[in-house]
Amino acid sequence: MSPFARIREDIAAARLRDPAARGPLEVALLYPGLHAIWAHRVNAALWRRGARFPARLGSQVTRWLTGIEIHPGATIGRRFFIDHGSGVVIGETAEIGDDVMLYHGVTLGGRTRDTGKRHPTLGDGVAVGAGAKILGPVTVGARSLIGANAVVTKDAPADSVLVGVPARARARISGEDSRAVLMAPEYVI
């Protein structure tokens, strides 16, 4: 897929997930989550080629400009969207599937200083509410929802809803609306 096709796909994904998006030009110019992921693709390419310092420098400049920190070693799938963005941190060994959405203040962080896999893996179609923290080398299964301010430290199967501190998983209810789950008062800490 060409870089321009990826950009168009990212803009379409943002417009699909954000009801406030008025048009593609507004989204392309004014959405820091998109700017961060576009910069990440450049920084990740540098990282994979062994240009570690320029990749880290690029990620820090992007952090300064957008308020979103994505380590260039993180692996991120297609149609990834960060809504509002400020305060998002994605660690070096994090793996993010396709069609994932994060709100502001989300951390995909580590819990140890060990080398190797130390950040979370999010399956395809996962949505993460504002302020949630997913810590350590945990795996969150596809199509799962993580409520606002939840703290996830254990694996969760696909189609789960995770809420609380520490987060507890329950199965998603058939036909459950992800926006309703992410915004419902009973899921906010």
From TrEMBL:
Pfam families: Hexapep. InterPro entries: Hexapep (IPR001451), LbH_SAT (IPR045304), Ser_AcTrfase_N_sf (IPR042122), Ser_O-AcTrfase (IPR005881), Serine_acetyltransferase (IPR053376), Trimer_LpxA-like_sf (IPR011004). GO terms for biological process: cysteine biosynthetic process from serine. Belongs to the transferase hexapeptide repeat family. Keywords: Acyltransferase, Amino-acid biosynthesis, Cysteine biosynthesis, Transferase. The keyword Amino-acid biosynthesis applies. Its EC number is 2.3.1.30. It is an enzyme of class 2 (transferase). One of its GO terms (molecular function) is serine O-acetyltransferase activity. The lineage of its organism: Bacteria, Bacillati, Actinomycetota, Actinomycetes, Micrococcales. It comes from the Bacteria. Gene3D superfamilies: Hexapeptide repeat proteins, serine acetyltransferase, domain 1. GO terms for cellular component: cytoplasm. This is Serine acetyltransferase. It catalyses: L-serine + acetyl-CoA = O-acetyl-L-serine + CoA. Pathway: Amino-acid biosynthesis; L-cysteine biosynthesis; L-cysteine from L-serine: step 1/2.
